[in-house]
Amino acid sequence: MQDNSIKSTCSYCGVGCGLLIKKDSKNKVSVEGDPDHPVNKGMLCSKGRNLHYVVNDTSDRLLYPQMRWSKSHPNLDRVDWDTALERAAHVFKSIIKQHGPDSVGFYVSGQCLTEEYYIANKLVKGFLGTNNIDTNSRLCMSSAVVGYKKTFGEDSVPIAYADIELADCFLITGANPAYCHPILFRRIEAHKEKNPDVKTIAVDPRRTDTAAYADLHLQLLPGTDIILYNAIGRRLLEQGLVDKDFIDNHTEGFAQYRAQVMQLSLKEAAKQCGVPVADIKKAADIIGISKGFISMWAMGLNQSVVGTNKNFALLNLSLITGQVGKPGSGPFSLTGQPNAMGGREVGGMANLLAVHKDLMNENHRREVAHFWGVNEISGKPGYTATQMFEALETGRLKAVWIICTNPSVSLPDVRKVDKALQNAKFVVVQDISKRSDTLQYADLILPAAGWLEKEGTMTNSERRISHLPKVVEAPGEARPDVEILCDFAQKMGFRGFDYYNTSEIYQEYAAMTKGTNIDISYLNYDRLKNEGTFQWPVNTYRHTGTPRLFEDKKFYTPSKKAVFNIPSTLYNRSIKPDAEYPFVLTTGRVRDQWHTMTKTGKVSRLKTHYPTPVLEIHPVDAVKLKIREGTICEVASENGNVRVKAKLTDTIRQGVVFLPMHWGKKLASDLNRTNNLTQNMVDPQSKEPDFKFTAVRVEKY
Ligand code: SF4
């Protein structure tokens, strides 16, 4: 198959598996894992293996632009592209003229290709004159971003997947890679099979498949992560299982760290976390004697009102053990989306500028403005994801352009999101699929080209950039997102958007990276096509990429030292359960579904594993509530309610219930939307919402 097959990258999770695509005479594609790809070595998970169905079945695709001429007009009319984008430009100009540039915003996605993300940011921050552009990566990685920036001086994942095979201890916390990053997990399993002394420790309130596989499962009470990591830190210090040389010569802030971890005895910490003291000691001892210690985490840490504090506490364990910048060691955030990292590189958040530059830094704003040939970039931070929808609800934001994401299912407190979208003066939804719930609020629907229907690049969780070629034509009149955005920019009268192809866009961005920590100025489409994937930085001619950062122990902070950041609190700040709402709801993904199921939901074989949303509840709790397997339950929070069948399982702690996040109104019903329940509470630093701790009531319906 390899001879005439085309190399690409999976469009789902941040693992970034390499694929070989073949196309038949009828333009139908087939998909195989690329045996030569450094990430997956030919393996694919269930989602990746079934990607061809998503491309070949175009029955759900949006095929032409549609427009509602006024709010009183009930129907969307088919229009041509010129009419659609001229109207969009007319409405945006008129709203900006009347209410100023901060009255419009863009909400984009970690599935956008880097070139699309770059153009959207250039358009909004450089030319529309507002920083109101944020991404659904805000819901995913922004707490980890703050953790990396404050610890290492830059949003930089220090590690490579190749370190997995060099490690002998994995602390997997707030993540279920067996379901959500399966190929990465397969690599850990294979490594452990060959090296039985390798240990995995899982930290999770649920006994997930990852936790069941682990040598040690710390089934902590939700929200007690900081206390647990500090207790592990205390034990490491007390046992002398720390790297004194690294602490003394390459870090700052250790004294404050030591003072904080000594605040709680192990006994007290164990009581507060709900895990035995012996298990905390065991975890610390495994970590402390390991030669290569990798911590892996995902949404269990990030999606919390104390998400950045959780990140700090975990990152500090890598610092006291000196397990950074050496083979088989380092902290490793697991990205949920295929290009969340590429998006951050080009400034895809309301508080960032391209090339990881800082919006609040006047010099950085001046440099970026100069590069784009505009007078200035506003210093006012834009609305973050949840702020954008709050602003729509209150009328401060009048128009929103939503690209490749489905906020009507995925944001917290979705009924408020619905109201916000109803209240907006103008909503543009640019998407590939009719299955998006958000379409019902659109005044303008723009059909976009999907995966394999356009060209561009992505960056996976280990900083690996890959090139994705166009393989098939998009159906109907669907167009690549960059073309749509560039056409819109030109209709707005902006210069600097007349690119010949996406390679030119990439080159413009790559030139901007020159001399920075994420320098890819020596990486171009030709090298990506001919030589394969590269991990940034790639900063000299013939440079082959950088698998591991900080091998010289020089960090990107002003002092060149890594920083112990001290959590501002040990305790969770989510609203606690009480007599009315006695359970803690935690939400997450299931193995074969992805996001709001606009793609995975159309593949019938992916529905068999977890066909409908169910409430996971411990049998002891269920008995008290007279709930049996399959009983329809009403779950209610202060915000709303959900009605689903119960699934009794002792894999979850008593007092905790779990709901999957994928199902929306279109696929099920309003009463299956898990985010009816979640609260719009965010971490004060990262502005990432808390999806992991909502006080709820459960009743038999
Ligand atoms: Fe795709 Fe992630 Fe599965 Fe790899 S692990 S095939 S990137 S979904």
Keywords:
seven-stranded mixed sheet, about 700 residues, nitrate reductase (cytochrome), binds iron/sulfur cluster, 4 domains, six-stranded mixed sheet, iron, EC 1.9.6.1, Dimethylsulfoxide Reductase, domain 2, Phosphorylase Kinase, domain 1, Rossmann fold
Task: Provide structural commentary.
This protein is α/β, with parallel strands linked by helices. The protein has four domains: 51 residues, Phosphorylase Kinase, domain 1 (2-Layer Sandwich); 251 residues, Rossmann fold (3-Layer(aba) Sandwich), CATH 3.40.50; 195 residues, Dimethylsulfoxide Reductase, domain 2; 118 residues, Barwin-like endoglucanases. The protein has 24 helices and 28 strands. The protein has a seven-stranded mixed sheet, sandwiched between helices. Strand 2 and strand 3 form a beta hairpin. The longest helix has 19 residues. The chain is globular, with a radius of gyration of 24 Å. Iron/sulfur cluster binds next to helix 1 and helix 7. Its cofactor is FAD; [4Fe-4S] cluster; Mo-bis(molybdopterin guanine dinucleotide).
Short précis:
The protein is α/β, with parallel strands linked by helices. It contains 24 helices and 28 strands. The relative contact order is 0.16.
